[in-house]
Design brief:
Length: 264
């Protein structure tokens, strides 16, 4: 059976997911007692539902997360398939928060009196302030991490009025390039202007050349690549790199106007 635990003063509280039960294990004797949900027969896996009540008269459905709130002397249970949080005190359950989407993990911050909720199918972390009603369950503003951008080259172009940069992106051996999701973001400096449409981000599937207009003033272009490639087993790799192109005025008739960029 799948289970999750929380140890409290010689007792181990267990969310026994497959039997839709919360149990308590006495550590010294290792005796097991029902706290809430399920059936008298612990092997009965079909006593599930969504009913507040006491002991085995209450019904849960596949609870996963469990936390002990010592100040309130109660358990907080993530009743996952009922999409709720329930509080349990003296073997009596009551719905605490509704409107979740398969909540799983719980973590208690006793100093700030907050419960953090992994609302799995909403791809969201929420927080609940203890001692208030369920309307105070709020989304957390979680900062997303990004793959760092590494430098991948510097080029130089001399031109009178326009610059053309040709793009060539090859994937690592054994991985297939996802051109639809891979893209390049263009940032211009000085006298260089992007000739494409806004926003200055283009899919590698849609473009093989980038065009710019220039003035007599020197300028530069940063090409920020996000390249996604996947192996046959479904593992995908995200590579971010920045190629700087410095653009200056032409001094002779010999003007290289095309640069090929190859990424690993």
């Amino acid at each position: 059976k799948q289970w999750y635990q929380r140890r409290v003063r010689g007792s181990l509280y267990v969310a026994d997911s497959e039997s839709s039960t919360v149990r308590v294990v006495d550590i010294p004797s290792f005796g097991v007692k029902n706290v809430i949900g399920g059936a008298i027969d612990p092997t009965d896996l079909f006593c599930y539902g969504d009913t507040d009540g006491k002991g085995t008269s209450a019904r849960l459905q596949h609870p996963i997360g469990i936390e002990w709130c010592g100040e309130a002397e109660q358990l907080i249970v993530a009743d996952s398939y009922n999409h709720k949080l329930k509080c349990v005190k003296s073997r009596l359950s009551a719905s605490l928060v509704t409107g979740l989407n398969e909540p799983s993990g719980l973590s208690l911050d006793p100093y700030r009196r907050l419960v953090y909720i992994a609302d799995t199918n909403s791809h969201t972390v929420r927080q609940l302030a203890l001692g208030v009603d369920c309307s105070d369950c709020e989304d957390l503003k979680v900062r997303k991490t990004r793959t760092p951008i590494r430098p991948c080259g510097v080029s130089f172009i001399r031109t009178e009025a326009a610059a053309l940069i040709s793009l060539s992106v090859d994937s690592v051996a054994g991985r297939q390039l996802n051109r639809t999701e891979s893209h390049v973001t263009v940032t211009c400096y000085g006298g260089v202007k992007w000739a494409g449409s806004d926003p200055p981000q283009v899919s590698l599937e849609e473009v093989s050349e980038l065009r710019f207009t220039t003035t007599e003033e020197r300028g530069a272009v940063d090409l920020d690549f996000k390249v996604i490639s996947c192996s046959e087993d479904g593992m995908c790799h995200v590579d971010r790199c920045r190629h700087r192109v410095n653009i200056g005025p032409s001094q002779s008739g010999d003007e290289p106007t095309s640069i090929c960029l190859t990424l690993p």
